[in-house]
Amino acid sequence: MDFKGSDAVPGPRAEDQLPHTAQAAAKIVIVGGFGVGKTTMVGAVSEIRPLTTEETMTQAGIGVDDNYGSDTKTATTVAMDFGRIRITDQVVLYLFGTPGQERFWFLWNGLFEGALGAVVLVDTRRLEVSYDVMGQLEERGVPFVVAVNSFPDGPRYPIEDLRQALDLAPEIPIVECDVRRRASSRDVLLTLMRFLHAMALSGSLV
Question: Going along 2-130, which residue ranges are E strands?
């Protein structure tokens, strides 16, 4: 069969191909409640065109999904978001954004499998939705850092007050970020990688 004709399936775009210098890869999950900015973060930081599974929100979600603070949100992730970023020429991170609604949490089992670490995105307008998310990570033994997404109308608290409210151990990093900005999202991932590296050096990363 001749695959050189005009009907041949095109290959990946040049910018989507894995760099030839890449020697190691790590799977990172980005988790958080509904509407905290997971899809936005993956899209902002990914160096390839991100894969999203957003669907239009319908009347069926009323009374089921808590969209507090997200009144203008018209679509939601129903499976995952996927992106990729190089931390160095040799190290590549594969990013998996999880769906936020609790009714889709059954998908988390597969998304968490093989994950080296996680970013927990937090919205200060509704800190309580983060508790179960962090509990899921702790149950699975996935190390994580907490990133406080800065919403314009969200209250601002000192980092140590947030640490106490979220009942975070002293060693878990907590940083502020704006997931719309590539540099800010990249810095969150670098914080996670430094945390994982410190854990590996101390022998606490299994």
Answer: 24-32, 54-56, 75-77, 81-86, 91-97, 117-122
Compute the distance between CA of residue 28 and CA of residue 161 in angstroms, rounded to an integer: 27
Q: Write the secondary structure of 148-189 as one string of H (helix), E (strand) and C (coil).
A: EECCCCCCCCCHHHHHHHHCCCCCCCEEEECCCCHHHHHHHH
What is the model's pTM? 0.79
CA dihedral 193, 162, 38, 30 (to 10 degrees): 40
The whole-angstrom separation of Cα 31 and Cα 122 is 9
Please compute the mean of the pLDDT values over residues 40-64 and round it to a whole number: 71
* Mean pLDDT of the region 154-165: 94
CA distance linking residue 75 with residue 79, whole number of Å: 12
3-state secondary structure of 60: helix
pLDDT tens-digit map of 55-72: 454 455 444 455 555 555
- Helix 129-140 crosses helix 159-166 at what angle (to 10 degrees)? 70
Q: Is 105 exposed, middle or buried (0-12, 13-18, 19+ CB in 10 A)?
A: middle
Q: Are 120 and 90 in contact (CB under 8 A)?
A: no
Long-range contacts for 158-164 (Cβ within 8 Å, ≥24 apart)? 162/122, 162/124, 162/127
